[in-house]
Design a protein that fits this description.
Length: about 120
């Protein structure tokens, strides 16, 4: 929440602290969530490469624990980073992968949002 109010550095510090706490108790789902949120703080043309790397790490965790819903969210963040880099083919591939996962898990509201994102890229 701190980062969303414009205090990005403070927000990053808090998320990093949460990430360390999740790791200390071996909470893989929490670790993945913290990585995804931390990646969001680098998006919006701040450091898309960092966003992509953090989403890649989160997705590895989600694959390990079988969390397809969270993986789809991380894929959307990854796709947005590619979109911000004007890498539209890569963005579409990630959005489409996310869309498939959202449909598989029945998250139709998020599938609709992802469909809009795909249309925007086209």
């Amino acid at each position: 929440m701190t980062g969303s109010t414009g205090a990005l550095e403070k927000g990053r510090a808090e998320i990093t602290q949460a990430l360390e706490l999740y790791r200390s108790v071996n909470d893989r789902a929490g670790e993945g969530l913290a990585l995804s949120i931390l990646g969001l703080t680098y998006s919006s043309k701040i450091d898309e490469d960092k966003t992509i790397e953090l989403q890649r790490q989160a997705i590895e965790i989600y694959d390990t624990i079988g969390d397809r819903h969270s993986k789809a969210i991380a894929l959307n963040v990854w796709a947005t980073a590619y979109e911000n880099l004007n890498e539209y083919a890569l963005a579409l591939a990630k959005y489409q992968e996310a869309l498939g996962l959202f449909e598989e898990v029945g998250a139709l509201d998020l599938a609709a949002v992802t469909t809009f994102q795909i249309r925007r890229v086209y």
